[in-house]
């Protein structure tokens, strides 16, 4: 899951951007937290949250195939 999210974010934000993905796996639930710069957080979320919804849908498909549940959080920090 982390690799798929990294691939998506690298293509949205660009190769030079700095972000960190923290993965917590507790059995059947995987929590992914994306820590980005404050100005890049908006690019990940998108207008009216459309980009983050699309990312969550893609990750949900992969999670369903692995019989898991996915939670994706975005934490823009200054």
Topology:
Elements: H1 2-13, E1 19-26, E2 29-37, H2 38-45, H3 50-65, E3 69-77
Parallel strand pairs: 2-3
Antiparallel strand pairs: 1-2
Brief overview:
This protein is of the alpha+beta class. It is built from three helices and three strands, in the order αββααβ. It has one domain (2-77): K homology (KH) domain (GMP Synthetase, Chain A, domain 3).
How would you describe the overall organization of this protein?
The chain has 78 residues and is α+β, with helices and mostly antiparallel strands. It has a single domain (2-77), classed as 2-Layer Sandwich (GMP Synthetase, Chain A, domain 3), CATH 3.30.300.20. 46% of the residues lie in helices and 33% in strands. The chain has helices at 2-13, 38-45, 50-65; strands at 19-26, 29-37, 69-77. It has a 3-stranded mixed beta sheet with strand order 1-2-3, with helices on one face.
- Derived from helix and strand composition plus strand pairing, the structural class reads alpha+beta
Number of strands: 3
CATH superfamily: K homology (KH) domain
SS summary, helix count = 3
List keywords for this structure.
78 residues, alpha+beta, GMP Synthetase, Chain A, domain 3, three-stranded mixed beta sheet, 3 helices, 3 strands
């Amino acid at each position: 899951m982390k690799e798929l999210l990294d691939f998506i974010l690298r293509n949205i934000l660009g190769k030079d951007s700095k972000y960190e993905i923290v993965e917590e796996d507790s059995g059947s639930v995987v929590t992914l937290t994306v820590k980005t710069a404050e100005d890049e957080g908006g690019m990940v979320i998108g207008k009216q949250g459309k980009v983050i919804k699309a990312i969550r849908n893609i990750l949900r498909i992969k999670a369903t195939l692995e019989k898991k549940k996915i939670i994706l959080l975005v934490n823009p920090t200054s």
